[in-house]
């Protein structure tokens, strides 16, 4: 799609994008470039490049690179607010403050939520959000013993970031499974993740589940915290960081599309990423029920398909199907290390370090929003 393909829509086209994560900004930026009337809604005032959230938790001054103001890019096409209702009959989206946004087409890009620091999901200003990460850095700096709960991709990256920045700290990673990282990854990639962590000196407690998590203070330094597992292991620590329990953000659309939700809370979509039975509603990114891992990279691909299909539907042209490809998944294990796979093939440390580990794709998001990083 060229940058100024103004679409003649006979005045009836107005797209509302709900959610300003990776899929949301990709869609909004394309709509903006095409001069298509749109409104993007998010409860924060800034995009959060959460791929770099874990580094922002250990390296002071990094957080400000991970939040990008929506209003500076999208001007009057952005509203900060919480969506409380989607009315399909009237084709409107209602915000908590009472404002009603009409749409001809709707793109749901509500993403997923999870524990801080991996995700930052609350109504907030950029300043407050950045400060939350700077405070987290201080908690990490104060702690000599740190326990990371959860050994999926966020947990292993968190443990590696801490050990890279503060090699003298003692880090224990507790994971309920035997193999680390995501189950969609090649076994050799998962094995390499384990070897990198051991090389960095992370203590691994595998096939054990934390049994007293509800009682533990999280993200806060304490002189003594006792972590217990279901196998009877006890770990004395100063800081507990939880990196598990990602959930789909479905509250904005749950009542409107109750009958079209998968058990995860994601919306069922057809091959064109249209919500089942609603040709003018698209779901992209984590909230779309597509059989592939939930990743920023996929959200961007979905956004391009949704925008192209909105234009094609207005021009009565055939729609484009989304086909998940071979898995591309890069794990950054601190700024000097990493492992992953591209289109299903193993890639090692050098490649991942060049592609992701050094800046965690931060510059890509600034480019998408046409701003320059601080």
Order of helices and strands: EHEEHEHEEEEEEHEHEHEEEEEEHEEEHH
Major beta sheet, specifics? 5 strands, parallel
Q: Which structural class should the secondary elements be placed in?
A: alpha/beta
Give the strand order of the largest sheet, numbering strands 1, 2, ... along the chain: 5-2-1-9-18
Please bin the fraction of helical residues: 25-40%
User: What's the gyration radius in Å?
Assistant: 21 Å
If you average the pLDDT, what whole number results? 95
Shape: globular
Can you tell me the residue ranges where pLDDT is under 50 for at least 5 consecutive residues? 1-7
End-to-end separation in angstroms reads 29 Å
Our estimate of the beta-strand percent is 15-25%
Helical segment count: 9
Counted beta strands: 21
Q: What's the SSE blueprint?
A:
Layout: E1 15-18, H1 22-33, E2 38-42, E3 46-48, H2 53-56, E4 67-69, H3 70-74, E5 78-80, E6 83-87, E7 92-95, E8 100-102, E9 105-108, E10 112-113, H4 126-142, E11 145-149, H5 153-165, E12 170-175, H6 187-200, E13 203-206, E14 225-228, E15 234-237, E16 239-242, E17 247-248, E18 281-283, H7 296-314, E19 329-332, E20 338-342, E21 345-347, H8 349-357, H9 362-368
Parallel strand pairs: 1-2, 1-9, 2-5, 9-18, 11-12, 11-16, 12-13
Antiparallel strand pairs: 3-4, 6-7, 7-8, 10-17, 14-15, 19-20, 20-21
Helix pairs in contact: 1-7, 5-6
């Amino acid at each position: 799609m060229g940058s100024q393909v103004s679409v003649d829509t006979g005045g009836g086209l107005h797209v509302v994008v709900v959610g300003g994560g990776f899929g949301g900004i990709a869609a909004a930026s394309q709509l903006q470039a095409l001069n298509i009337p749109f409104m993007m809604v998010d409860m924060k005032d800034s995009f959060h490049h959460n791929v770099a959230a874990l580094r922002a938790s250990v390296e002071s001054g990094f957080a400000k690179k991970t939040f990008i103001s929506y209003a500076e890019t999208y001007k009057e096409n952005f509203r900060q607010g919480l969506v409380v209702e989607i009315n399909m009959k009237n084709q409107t989206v209602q915000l908590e403050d009472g404002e009603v946004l009409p749409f001809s087409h709707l793109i749901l890009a509500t993403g997923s939520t999870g524990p801080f620091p991996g995700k930052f999901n609350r109504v907030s200003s950029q300043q407050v959000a950045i400060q939350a990460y700077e405070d987290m850095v201080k908690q990490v700096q104060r702690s000599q013993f740190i326990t990371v709960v959860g050994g999926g991709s966020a947990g292993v990256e968190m443990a590696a970031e801490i050990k890279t920045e503060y090699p003298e700290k003692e880090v224990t990673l507790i994971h309920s499974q035997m193999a680390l990282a995501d189950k969609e990854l090649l076994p050799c990639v998962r094995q390499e993740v384990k070897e990198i962590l051991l090389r960095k000196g992370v203590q691994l407690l595998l096939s054990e589940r934390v049994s007293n998590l509800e009682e533990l203070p999280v993200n806060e330094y304490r002189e003594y915290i006792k972590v217990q597992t279901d196998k009877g292991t006890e770990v004395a620590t100063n800081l507990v960081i939880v990196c598990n329990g990602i959930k789909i953000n479905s509250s904005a659309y749950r009542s409107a599309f109750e009958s079209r939700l998968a058990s995860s809370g994601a919306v069922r979509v057809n091959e064109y990423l249209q919500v089942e039975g609603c040709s003018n509603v698209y779901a992209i990114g984590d909230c779309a029920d597509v059989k592939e891992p939930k990743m920023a990279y996929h959200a961007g691909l979905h956004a391009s398909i949704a925008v192209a299909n909105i234009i094609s539907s207005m021009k009565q042209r055939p729609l484009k199907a989304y086909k998940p490809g071979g898995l591309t998944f890069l794990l950054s294990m601190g700024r000097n290390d990493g492992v992953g796979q591209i289109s299903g093939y193993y890639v090692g440390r050098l490649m991942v370090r060049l592609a992701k580990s050094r800046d965690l794709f931060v510059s890509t998001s600034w480019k998408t929003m046409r701003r320059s990083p601080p």
